[in-house]
Amino acid sequence: MERIIIKNKSSIDKMRIAGKALAQLMQEVASMVIPGASSHDIDAFMERRMHELELVPACKGYAGYRHATLISLNDVVVHGIPSKEIILKSGDFVKIDVVGSYKGYCADMARYFFVGEASPVARRLASVAQLALDAAIAKVAPGVRLSDISSTIQEIVEKEGFGIVRDFAGHGIGKAIHEPPQVLNYGKPGHGPVLQEGMTLAIEPMITEKSYKVRIMSDGWTARTIDGGLAAHVEDTIVVTKDGAEVLTRL
Ligand code: MF3
Ligand code: CO
Fold first, then answer.
1. Which of 113, 157, 181, 236 could form a disulfide with 33 if both were Cys (CB 3.0 to 4.6 A apart)?
2. 2 within a domain of the structure (yes/no)
3. Among protein residues, the one whose CA lies closest to atom 6 of ligand 1
4. pLDDT tens for each residue of 163-205
5. Domain that holds residue 227
């Protein structure tokens, strides 16, 4: 396993500024996630506001990606590409994923939104994803093994009868969007690196209504469930503290 970079106070301070700014933008953007808006409109808003808050939209230019955000509807699990052709309608379940960097240090977060009326299954899927993320964050502390986080997520999600996507994972984060370690959303407890104060992780359960299998569309990004079932995704960037975790992407 590659080395996990421990961040000092000044790096963490920058990641916190990035994280809080993104959390603020996620609140602002909620009023735009309405019937008739396009996912391009939402992306353009987020990018403009990031510039105003002195954040660099770190997804733009990453692995050839051309937008500030990833906006995934319904059966799109992650990495939906914003488009003028994707128009939101009542009943849509929308996930917005964004990475912003402040003075070179990144925060990564994803939130979900309901357009108009949400179906009961969308609400249940969303709340289980949130519950899994919150439980995973509550587990984080120095001395905990990384796979204890993974197994916490899997246990909660599978107990509710939902699927855990295997093809994507959370990750370390810092100057780069993706640093070691990979933070799997499934696995047995008691394995992997021991968490230490100053490690920074993006934890991001991706869960499905039916099969956990996904396929990537011909655009090279959009990841959909193979069976058309709904998918939920929520993500926070955290730092391991002396006695637990601080969530950098919440206000
Ligand atoms: N939260 C996403 C991830 O960890 C952010 C990807 S940035 C992109 O996969 F540039 F790849 F889009
Ligand atoms: Co991420």
1. 113
2. no
3. 59
4. 999 999 999 999 999 999 999 999 999 999 999 999 999 999 9
5. 9-247
Q: What are the tens digits of pLDDT across the range 25-57?
A: 999 999 999 999 999 999 999 999 999 999 999
Closest CA to 145 of 198, 197, 189, 203: 189
**Is 81 close to ligand 1, i.e. is its CB under 6 Å away?**
no
1 is a domain residue = no
For 40-70, b/e burial (b = at least 16 CB within 10 A) is bbbbbbbbebbeebebbbbbeeeeebebbbb
Ligand 1 centroid–CA 183 distance in Å is 14
Quote the number of domains for the chain.
1
**Angle at CA 221, nearest 5°, toward 23 and 33?**
40
C-alpha to C-alpha distance for 237 and 140, rounded to whole angstroms: 12
